[in-house]
């Protein structure tokens, strides 16, 4: 279900430090993303910190923040900014590139490289149940190269899902829209709605004080691979903890995909964090292992 937009975007033509805002690209519960041009006239994407649970912009440029939400708003903004600084130090083809930071209008903005293509979510919707094993392995093997770099920098993504995996025109994946700042914001206040995405969030993200780590992102990668085959998210982890109705990939798609791929997905989706591959590297090794080539071809 699409999230209802409760804040107006910045107006077309608005300029901050030489960056001209052209149009809104997307809106989520935590931010608005715009297409903009940099001072040289080159296209960039700019993400504006604007958590809907804490702030609204119904008029003008400055978000309206209620006094009781100010501390949490500032805490989330700091986490958003610090995460951007950390990402700006990464230069990997499979991780979104942060180019600059802007501070204005009582909020912050991350300037990112603009990519042409579409999300994996959009690709799945266009080709439901038609994705080949070669396609799935190719996308996620490359994505895990980027995730390894993220984890090596002591960062976690915490919101991996098909809509946060961008496919360039040549189908190479880019990991976008990190969720660590949202996690920090959730920890700052008990008033907020959970920031994880049902179906892709690991069980430990539902638990107060749950121990999150690389294995948490591994669960989400497995859920995203499952979604590639099912054209839908798997059963949410909190519901699985109560009554696990998730049909294992090794049963649901036996004969259509290699046993190795299906078993790898099932390993990622284990509810016990210690039973999953413990790192992006471990998971990547499973995906690049030899396997019997299936007959399907990717769209």
Description:
- The protein has 9 helices and 11 strands.
- It is an alpha+beta fold.
- The protein folds into 2 domains: about 15-115, 2-Layer Sandwich (Phosphorylase Kinase, domain 1); about 115-290, Orthogonal Bundle (Transferase(Phosphotransferase), domain 1).
- The strands form 3 sheets. It has a 6-stranded antiparallel beta sheet with strand order 1-2-3-4-8-7, covered by helices on one side.
- A hairpin with a 2-residue loop joins strand 7 and strand 8.
- Helix 5 (about 215-230) crosses helix 8.
- The longest helix has 20 residues, at about 135-150.
- The protein is globular, with a radius of gyration of 19 Å.
Keywords:
Phosphorylase Kinase, domain 1; three-stranded antiparallel sheet; single chain; Transferase(Phosphotransferase), domain 1; 299 residues; 34% helix; globular
Quick take:
This protein has 299 residues and is an alpha+beta fold. The protein has helices at 70-88, 120-126, 133-152, 180-188, 214-230, 237-242, 249-252, 259-268, 280-288; strands at 15-16, 19-27, 31-37, 43-49, 55-56, 64-65, 98-104, 107-113, 117-119, 165-168, 173-175.
Instruction: Write down the overall mean pLDDT.
Output: 91
What is the highest CATH level, the class of the largest domain? Mainly Alpha
Q: What spatial order of strands do you see in the largest sheet?
A: 1-2-3-4-8-7
Distance between the termini: 26 Å
Quickly give the structural class.
alpha+beta
How much of the polypeptide forms β-strand, as a percent range? Answer: 15-25%
CATH superfamily of the largest domain: Transferase(Phosphotransferase) domain 1
Shape: globular
Count of beta strands: 11
What is the CATH third-level topology name of the largest domain?
Answer: Transferase(Phosphotransferase), domain 1
Order of helices and strands: EEEEEEHEEEHHEEHHHHHH
Number of helices in the DSSP assignment: 9
Percent of residues in helical segments? Answer: 25-40%
Radius of gyration: 19 Å
């Amino acid at each position: 279900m699409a999230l209802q937009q409760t804040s107006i975007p910045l107006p077309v033509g608005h300029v901050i430090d030489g960056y001209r805002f052209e149009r809104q690209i997307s809106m989520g519960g935590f931010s608005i993303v715009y297409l903009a041009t940099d001072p040289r006239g080159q296209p960039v994407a700019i993400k504006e910190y604007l958590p809907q649970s804490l702030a609204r912009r119904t008029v003008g440029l400055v978000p309206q923040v209620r006094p009781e939400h100010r501390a949490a708003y500032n805490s989330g903004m700091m986490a958003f900014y610090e995460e951007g600084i950390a990402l700006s130090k990464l230069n990997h083809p499979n991780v979104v590139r942060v180019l600059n930071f802007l501070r204005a209008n009582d909020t912050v903005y991350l300037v990112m490289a603009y990519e042409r293509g579409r999300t994996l979510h959009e690709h799945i919707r266009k080709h439901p149940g038609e994705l080949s094993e070669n396609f799935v392995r190719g996308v996620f093997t490359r994505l895990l190269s980027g995730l390894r770099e993220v984890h090596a920098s002591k960062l976690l993504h915490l919101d991996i899902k098909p809509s946060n995996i961008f496919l360039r025109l040549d189908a190479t994946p880019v990991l976008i829209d990190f969720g660590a700042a949202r996690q920090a914001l959730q920890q700052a206040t008990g008033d907020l709605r959970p920031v994880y995405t049902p179906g892709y969030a690991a069980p430990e993200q539902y638990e107060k004080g749950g121990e999150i780590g690389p294995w948490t992102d591994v669960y989400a990668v497995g859920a995203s691979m499952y979604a590639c085959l099912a054209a839908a998210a798997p059963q949410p982890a909190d519901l699985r903890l109560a009554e696990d109705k998730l049909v294992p990939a090794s049963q649901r798609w036996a004969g259509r995909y290699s046993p190795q791929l299906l078993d790898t997905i099932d390993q990622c989706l284990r509810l016990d964090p210690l039973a999953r591959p413990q790192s992006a590297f471990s998971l990547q090794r499973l995906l690049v292992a030899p396997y019997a080539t299936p007959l399907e071809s990717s769209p």
